[in-house]
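Forwarding the complex inputs:
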Amino acid sequence: MNYVLALLVPAIFLASFVFALFKKVKLYDSFTEGMKGAIPLIISIFPYIASVTMLSLLLRESGLESKLIALLAPMFELLGVPEEIAPLIFVKPLSGSGAIAVLSDILNRYGVDSYIARCACVAYGSSETIFYIGAVYFAGLKRKKLTLALTISVVSYLLSLLLCCALCRIM
Amino acid sequence: MNTLFAIVFILSTAILLILSPDTFLSTLLAGASKSATLCLSLLATYAVWLGLMKVWEDCGISRGVSKGLKPLARRLFKTDDEETLNAVCMNLSVNLLGISGAATPYGIRAAQLLDRSDEAEYSSSMLFVLNATSIQLIPTSIIGVRVALGSAAPADILIPTLLTTVFSTVIGLILTRLLIPPKHGKKRARTEEVFFKKKGAGTQ
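Prediction (whole assembly, two chains):
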């Protein structure tokens, strides 16, 4: 299974590049041009990642985090979601780069291949920054009846979290 | 996010001030340096994937995916307006390929166009729910973070992630259809679209 997945990424690249050559795309130019976009992207997300990382370290140093987790633990246990990923669950709908900071913190703390870390990865990868999207996409519109849509999105997010933790247990 | 940041920052700083004031600055610096390292590894990941995305864009794969989505979008969004459909399809296909940054401009355009349509409430909600529960084929940033931290099998979260994201999108879709039903049939929507298009062209 892992072997097949390891094949997937090189196979995607090979297929795309051969297809691009077939379409007479200037591969080198195109590849480097795309890469250029990575630099402004990183510059734009760095401040957010940095502030959220600082915040999460402050939260831990002050001892607030362990108290919060202890408070929420029974609820999470009931749902089969590991309480260690609670910070990620709260930050993700608000800020994507903030969530990356929280995610890498969780991965460092519990080991990249642990159950908790994999849960966190799937939870991050399968969800979106719901509130951010709502704010950006629908900012200037006249008819703003999105409360229901927002609720639907949050409900789907929470339901998918349950599935995510169950899947990580068996896969 | 602003409220959350303010509350948490002030609370924990106040506690640290009482318990151990000397750890405050070192905590902030540790946070900043950690994020600098993280950003470097993300830069590497994004460089690789954005390079590939550009190749996809140039050889027409992105456009192909977008075209393939059109019949589906027509049914989902109850509109026949070409311009709207184009924006919606580009938004959805870029999301599918996992380039969320590139999806935003198309998303905003699609939201504006859908807002004028007769089924604005239904179709805007649908656009929002689909974006907020986005289906992603390759979660590039996660694989990047896992590689950077030395995971033995960085890609083994691919299948659970795909299943979970499909699940959340399907739930969102069904709930939207049930709770915010489109008001009219397809024909009515079409005439309204033509009307709005003419009106829009007149004012420009």
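DSSP finds nine helices and no strands in chain B.
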